[in-house]
Amino acid sequence: MTMTENQKKIALVASETDIAQEAANILKERYDFVNVEEADIIVALGGDGFILHFIHEIMPHKASIFGMNKGTVGFLLNDFREDGLIERIKASTPITLHPLRMTAWTEDGTKVEALAINEVSLLRQTRQTAKIRIIVDDKIRMEELVCDGIMVATPAGSTAYNLSAHGPIIPMNAEIMAMTPISAFRPRRWKGALLPQISEVTFEVINPDKRPVSAVADTREVRHIVKVCIKQDRSIKINLLFDSHHTLEERILNEQFIN
Questions:
Q1: Burial label, 164 (beta-carbon count in 10 A; 0-12, 13-18, 19+)
Q2: What pLDDT score does 3 carry?
Q3: 178 with 153: CB under 8 angstroms?
Q4: Could you say which of 27, 36, 72, 249 has the lowest number of CB atoms within 10 Å?
Q5: Does the pTM of the predicted model rise above 0.85?
Q6: Is 48 among the residues known to form the active site?
Q7: Catalytic option among 40, 48, 137, 243
């Protein structure tokens, strides 16, 4: 199908798996695609991991992303169908995500910045538990958390690592983010906190030489950190497109009723 002047310029990307490549070849036979750099919309074939990796590769980018699942779970993706692609895109519902910006400082004084769509997590590097001070908007909220780690998750990421760590599922339009401990030892009963998305979170590592900690923004890891600041970066917009009958908001809502 050749696109008319009134239609958006559409690009196609796919993961390297055989199933994704086969699906890409089918679509190339039926539709005309442009290069990613020229695109208004990018059709992405793969799994959630591929989509996250691809978004990080092109961010920031003006194009919206219409993902179709050729992976395992496909939470951030639509079902794959070769028919009616242009019509599906035109009728799709957009969701705009703003990533978290992590600024981390290491023991040797190095400053590292990275973006996270799902979460920023701190994790102990050795068998010893981590000791972390929690500061929210320049106010100390917890002098010492003894734990395996802690994370700050976006609504989009609340059903991923955050949920596995027994954190809350957050509706997309809630304008909050989750702070969730990972195997908290002291205080043992602390289950985390919900924070406004405008909050700035700072984690300070206590005794980093004895109890080393790494920081991970989605998949970007920084080891031997002493301090991490996390804040939503609203200057960056990630536009995802979903079939109107199965939006990301609807999927996150459904997750709260799954046993």
A1: exposed
A2: 46
A3: yes
A4: 72
A5: yes
A6: yes
A7: 48
